Amino acid sequence: MTNEELISMAKKAMENSYSPYSEFRVGAAALGKSGTVYTGVNIENASYGATVCAERCAMFKGISEGERSFSRIAVVCGANRPAPPCGMCLQVMTEFMEPETGEILLEENGGIKVYKLKELIPLAFKL
Ligand SMILES: [Zn+2]
Predict the structure, then answer these.
(1) Could you tell me the residue range of the domain that residue 102 belongs to?
(2) Where are the beta strands (DSSP E) in the chain?
(3) How many C-beta atoms surround the C-beta of residue 38 within 10 A?
(4) Considering its fold, how many domains does the chain have in total?
(5) 93 CA to middle of ligand 1, Å?
(6) What pTM, to 2 d.p., does this model score?
(7) pLDDT of residue 116
């Protein structure tokens, strides 16, 4: 699974984004250690707090199917700019991705920028 393929899967998933309030469409594709890719979209709600981000949607799909570790996640949005994960999604990622090796793929300047999870959330909450 190349980074380009994972980004492409995130873009395909984004077509199913449910974002009537913000009209900010997001898609994600998370590569599980099993080799399976789980896609997700942002799903908004009239009660805004009930909204779920694409990254958590993708990871929760995998976790609900028994996946416990992800190596990479691609995140794309409908706007012409990178779509870095929010703090809540980064915190969830720290539970299921290795901070040193887990990768977050974003589209930047016409290419794919790869961030290590630890770069985006250096001081994650841990018990
Ligand atoms: Zn988020």
Answers:
(1) 3-120
(2) 26-32, 37-41, 70-77, 103-108, 111-116
(3) 23
(4) 1
(5) 10
(6) 0.96
(7) 98
40 in any annotated domain: yes
CATH of the domain at 21: 3.40.140.10
Which candidate in 4, 23, 44, 55 is catalytic? 55
Kindly state whether residue 125 falls inside one of the protein's structural domains.
Answer: no
Query: What's the confidence (pLDDT) of residue 55?
Result: 98
Write down the pLDDT at residue 47: 98
Q: What are phi and psi of 90, to 5 degrees?
A: -60, -40
Rounded to the nearest angstrom, the distance between the alpha carbon of 33 and the centre of ligand 1 is 21
Low-confidence stretches of the chain (pLDDT < 50) are: none
Instruction: Calculate how far, in angstroms, residue 64's C-alpha sits from the geometric centre of ligand 1.
Output: 18
Predicted confidence (pLDDT) per residue in 77-104, tens digit: 999 899 999 999 999 999 999 999 999 9
Q: How far is the CA of 13 from the centre of ligand 1 (A)?
A: 16
**Does 15 qualify as catalytic in the annotation?**
no
Encoded tokens for 10: 């995130």
User: Is residue 44 within 8 Å of residue 3, measured between CB atoms?
Assistant: no
